[in-house]
């Protein structure tokens, strides 16, 4: 699979997603590693098999083994952290914010790639998972490290499009299943 096969899998009504996939696959404001890792981390976070297979097939060859593992680690650790920190933010009781998380997060301190790239991938996954606390934290680290608003926005645009593609393909699969059940009845 590839980005082209992923675009071909999208229905005609999702033409904007197809166009956005094409332009973001060559996004010039990000390095190749930043772009490829963002796509992979976001595909894993979006949880759609077709999307993940196509994006990994397209972008994994552009990464070293260490960077590929780090992109997967960003999706994994933020899958946990986004739930925990979103809870502490949304819970009415203030004491949750003061309690130590007591969750292992060693990969954040030693991701195996440039810290800025890993933080960018964590931010993009946090955007998909909707954790404002994590978005703010990772965005601040990125800005302090010198990334521009345009670079950060590019990663979030990738997250938005990858998630939109995954949601569209999930919706199409469910619609097809419902149609098959209706026809069988």
Characterization of this structure:
The protein is mainly alpha-helical and 185 residues long. The chain has a single domain (3-184), classed as Up-down Bundle (AhpD-like), CATH 1.20.1290. The chain has 10 helices and no strands. Helix 3 packs antiparallel against helix 4 and helix 8 packs antiparallel against helix 9 (132-144).
Alpha-beta content class: mainly alpha
The number of helices is: 10
Q: Which architecture would the CATH scheme give at its second level?
A: Up-down Bundle
CATH topology: AhpD-like
Order of helices and strands: HHHHHHHHHH
| Number of individual domains | 1
The portion of residues forming beta strands comes to under 5%
What is the quaternary state of this protein?
single chain
**Largest sheet, described in full?**
none
The count of DSSP E runs of length 2 or more, i.e. the number of strands, is: 0
The geometry reads as globular
CATH class: Mainly Alpha
CATH superfamily: AhpD-like
First-to-last CA distance? 35 Å
Overview features:
185 residues; mainly alpha; AhpD-like; 10 helices
Secondary-structure blueprint of this entry?
Layout: H1 3-9, H2 15-24, H3 32-46, H4 49-59, H5 65-90, H6 95-98, H7 106-109, H8 115-129, H9 132-144, H10 149-184
Briefly summarize what is shown.
The model has no long low-confidence stretch (mean pLDDT 95). The chain has helices at residues 3-9, 15-24, 32-46, 49-59, 65-90, 95-98, 106-109, 115-129, 132-144, 149-184.
């Amino acid at each position: 699979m590839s980005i082209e096969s992923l675009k071909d899998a999208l229905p005609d009504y999702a033409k904007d997603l197809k166009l956005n996939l094409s332009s973001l696959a060559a996004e010039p404001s990000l390095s190749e590693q930043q772009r490829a890792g963002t796509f992979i981390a976001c595909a894993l976070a979006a949880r759609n098999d077709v999307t993940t297979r196509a994006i990994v097939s397209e972008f994994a060859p552009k990464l070293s083994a260490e960077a590929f593992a780090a992109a997967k680690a960003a999706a994994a650790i933020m899958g946990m952290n986004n739930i925990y920190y979103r809870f502490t933010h949304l819970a009415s009781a203030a004491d949750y914010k003061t309690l130590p998380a007591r969750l292992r997060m060693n990969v954040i301190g030693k991701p195996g790639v440039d810290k800025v790239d890993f933080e960018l991938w964590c931010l993009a996954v946090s955007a998909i998972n909707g954790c404002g606390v994590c978005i703010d934290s990772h965005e601040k680290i990125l800005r302090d490290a010198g990334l521009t608003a345009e670079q950060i926005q590019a990663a979030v645009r990738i997250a938005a499009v990858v998630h939109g593609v995954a949601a569209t393909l999930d919706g199409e699969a469910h619609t097809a299943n419902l149609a098959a059940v209706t026809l069988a009845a």
